[in-house]
From TrEMBL:
Provenance organism: Vanrija humicola
Annotated protein name in UniProt: Glutathione S-transferase UstS-like C-terminal domain-containing protein
Superkingdom of this protein's organism: Eukaryota
Domain Glutathione S-transferase UstS-like C-terminal: 108-216
Signal peptide: none
Highest classification ranks of the organism: Eukaryota, Fungi, Dikarya, Basidiomycota, Agaricomycotina
Length: 260
């Protein structure tokens, strides 16, 4: 728990500068939110957009290549990067370890697998929608940086999400990759229900961050990936993580919420 009297401030990225109340769509921010929830640590939000991460946050923290999540844990003191934040908290609260004994190498391996492999197989089911919901400046940045300025590629991916057949293909591809995790869960330490046993840890947050950001297309990703009969252990794990963290973004990005 924080020793300072001020609560932690979590800098996070949101889709629209005119809707700061929207939750963060960043898988990395959501990883840290999951960790903070697991540890029971309260915080206040500092909602930013791509432009203000590079501007105001870089200026404030003095970290030129700063990204979100960034946590201000005491006035003017910052820790950035979801893994670094998890390690840092681990030092601060040994009794609430986010890395249970022997679990860190697994978490490190899992992070590589999730961020370098799993994400490529699932993100097309939801990531294109970030573009649709963003304010114009964020959308311009997203297209330029994340899609190399290839508007046709991005529009093609958005259009693909409008086709039942194409969504079914994307879903099958995502489930094929998630099967690795499904099989792992069958042999999770101490019988689970979490990835490293009876208690949630940073390993769970690594995957859960992706689950949370995918909820921008909740009806589709839940039917295809997270709540699908082919992956019953993953379905049960998602339920346990929602219970353990209180985080559920499935209703936050309904199309009707897009400001005019
Ligand atoms: N390895 C970092 C990655 C963080 C990251 O890439 N965050 C993105 C948002 S999803 C960001 O801050 N982007 C700002 C930018 O690209 O300028 C972590 O785990 O925290």
């Amino acid at each position: 728990m924080s020793t300072s009297s001020k609560p932690y401030v979590l800098s996070e990225i949101v889709l629209r500068d005119d809707a700061p109340e929207w939750p963060s769509h960043s898988m990395f921010v959501n990883r840290t939110k999951s960790d903070l929830a697991i540890l029971g640590i309260p915080y206040t939000r500092d909602p930013l957009t791509f432009a203000t991460v590079r501007g105001a946050l870089a200026d404030k923290t003095g970290i030129k290549d700063v990204t979100v999540p960034t946590l201000e844990y005491a006035p003017g003191e910052y820790v950035t990067d979801s893994w670094a934040i998890a390690e840092w908290k681990n030092h601060g609260t040994p009794e609430n370890s986010l890395f249970p004994a022997g679990g860190k190498p697994f978490a490190r391996f899992l992070k590589r697998w999730v961020d370098d492999e799993l994400m490529f197989e699932i993100r097309e089911l939801f990531r294109p929608l970030f573009y649709r919901y963003q304010d114009p400046q964020s959308a311009e940045y997203f297209l330029r940086v994340k899609y190399g300025g290839d508007a046709a590629l991005l529009e093609g991916q958005i259009a693909r999400l409008g086709s039942k057949e194409e969504v079914a293909k994307l879903g099958a591809r995502g489930r094929a990759k998630l099967r690795t995790l499904e099989n792992y869960l069958a042999d999770a330490p101490a019988g689970g229900p979490f990835l490293l046993g009876a208690k949630p840890s940073h390993a769970d947050s690594i995957v859960f961050g992706w689950y949370l950001c995918s909820q921008v297309n909740a009806a589709v990703v839940n039917a295809e990936l997270w709540d699908n009969d082919e992956l019953p252990r993953i379905r049960a794990w998602v339920k346990e993580m929602k219970k353990a963290t209180g985080l559920d973004l499935s209703k936050q990005w309904e199309p009707k919420a897009v400001p005019k």
